[in-house]
Design brief:
Blueprint (H helix, E strand, L loop, with lengths): L20 H8 L3 E5 L2 E4 L1 H20 L3 E2 L5 E3 H7 L1 H4 L5 E4 L5 E4 L4 H11 L8 E10 L14 E11 L2 H21 L5 E4 L9 E8 L5 E6 L17 H12 L3 E3 L5 H4 L7 E16 L1 H6 L2 E3 L5 E3 L1 E8 H11 L1 E2 L2 E2 L10 E5 L5 H16 L4 E4 L5 H11 L3 E5 L1 H5 L3 E5 L5 E4 L1 H12 L4
Helix pairs in contact: 1-10, 2-6, 2-10, 6-7, 11-14
Bound molecules: 5'-O-(N-(L-cysteinyl)-sulfamoyl)adenosine.
Length: about 450
């Protein structure tokens, strides 16, 4: 992409309404624009990152054997009356009446609708196990929408639902989701720690939230610092292997890590003092096992293979896809702007022409642009007729992990400059070497 042709409305002023750094940088970098309280338009740069994150979620869901689908944002109130949640959900639910006077609502989650689809189509245990998921907009009329996309009213969420014959199978689905979430967050360059939590209006006793530690997080969390040393890494796991998934579950959830809702001072006090930590965290996902709560209410039954019928065991599993942009920025930025992890960056590398209009600089930049593109990478070429200082400022703000700077002096010596956004370290090398280096850096992400 050539910056001169792109729509990147970078703000010069610091937006006053932003209380946290991620919100400020998303506005300043021209990623989002508020449409009304807690509701945002996604401008091209923000949309690109949103899609990258969404794509990682899809890939990891497919790897775990879950099926993507899409349900509507507007739902009939009737199903929610069947489950008893229409009244219970309260003011967070946006209720709408259509022209025929029928009660509708904007989906805050979709346990009812998915259970309705299941009961209409599945009648035998032979069709189990089954996990269906979608990535769809949700609406919750939050009392205090704030921090930009982190607590929106409209937000983009992955919600998945497992259907199993037995509790044991459903707990395997729970463990499988935990494993796939660990992989998902790590691919986004995040450390998200599973913590024992409270289930709220979704219900059930077993639930873990995934938290990214950050001072601006809305949740207070308590944990054994040993949990921050755990990483999933590039282990290969067979998602159908119950014991293997259970072992990962045990590894990542045995040490103390809880949100304030489930915090237990007595247990916490048993951790050696130097490892006892209190911090704040951003909840980027949550998994639930709630047994037959919805299948009983809505009559989602299957033949159990022994002549009887049985309500299926279920769980639901969410990832805050739009919130993740905020969480990633909170976890990865400096005072000049965002620093995207390589897995989610909107463009792979910025090309900065120090002297647009200079024939040698223009030609070298064009050549780099063509070679990087041919290598399957997406460069962002700042070809604008601007001061070098303004170009550096924009690149730093939008946070591409790598920048290649092309200037007349370097070209005379046959080199360009490759700079890491994270470390600020620059190295001079021939353009061909710069292209090769980018290919190597991004090989794991393409
Ligand atoms: N049905 C279950 C699982 S799919 C569910 O709704 N879970 S949830 O309530 O925990 O939401 C899933 C994730 O959506 C949360 O972990 C959080 O990351 C994100 N989320 C929830 N509310 C908001 C909000 N107001 N703004 C942005 N993201 C949100």
């Amino acid at each position: 992409m050539r910056l001169s042709r792109y729509f990147l409305p970078v703000l010069k002023e610091t937006p006053r309404e932003a209380q946290v750094v991620s919100h400020r940088y998303m506005l300043q970098a021209g990623m989002i624009k508020q449409a009304s309280a807690g509701i945002y338009s996604w401008l091209p740069l923000g949309y690109k990152v949103l899609k990258k994150i969404e794509n990682i979620v899809h890939e990891e869901q497919a790897r775990a054997g879950h099926h993507a689908m899409l349900m509507p944002t507007l739902q009939s109130a009737d199903l929610w009356r069947e489950s008893g949640r229409y009244d219970a959900y309260g003011d967070e639910m946006l209720r709408i009446t259509d022209r025929g006077g029928r009660d509708m609502l904007y989906t805050p989650t979709a346990e009812e609708l998915i259970t309705d689809i299941f009961r209409a189509n599945v009648t035998s245990y032979k069709d189990l196990p089954l996990t269906l998921y979608q990535i769809q907009w949700k609406f919750r009329d939050e009392v205090r929408p704030r921090f930009g996309v982190m607590r929106g009213r409209e937000f983009y969420m992955k919600d998945g639902y497992n259907f199993d014959l037995t509790k044991e199978d459903a707990l395997h689905a729970y463990n499988r989701h935990l494993v796939s979430y660990l992989r998902t967050y790590e691919r986004m360059g995040l450390k998200a720690i599973p913590m024992r939590a409270d289930s709220g209006p979704i219900g059930g006793d077993d639930t873990h939230e995934f938290l990214v530690l950050a001072d601006t997080g809305e949740s207070e969390v308590f944990y054994d610092s040993a949990v921050t040393d755990l990483t999933f890494g590039d282990r290969e796991i067979d998602y159908t292997d119950k014991a293997a998934c259970a072992a990962v579950m045990e590894e990542f959830t045995t040490k103390y890590a809880r949100t304030d809702e489930t915090h237990d001072e007595t247990l916490f006090a048993q951790i050696p003092e130097e490892r006892r930590k209190t911090a704040r965290g951003i909840e980027v996902g949550q998994i639930f096992y709630f047994g037959t709560k919805y299948s009983d209410a809505l009559g989602a039954l299957v033949d159990d293979g022994a002549g009887g019928k049985q309500a299926v065991h279920m769980g639901s599993h969410g990832i805050g896809v739009s919130r993740l942009l905020g969480a990633i920025i909170e976890a990865s930025h400096d005072d000049k702007g965002i620093i995207w992890p390589e897995g989610v960056t909107p463009f792979h590398v910025g090309i900065l022409n120090m002297r647009s209009g200079d024939a040698a600089c223009d030609a070298a930049c064009e050549d780099l642009y063509a070679q990087l593109t041919q290598a399957g990478l997406e460069p962002l070429y700042d070809d604008r007729d601007e001061r070098a200082g303004a170009k550096f400022g924009t690149m730093d703000m939008i946070g591409l992990p790598w920048r290649i700077t092309v200037g007349p002096r370097g070209l005379k010596n046959g080199v360009v400059e490759v700079t890491s956004r994270r470390t600020g370290q620059s190295t001079e090398m021939p353009a061909a070497a710069a292209v090769a280096q980018m290919k190597t850096h991004y090989a794991p992400h393409l």
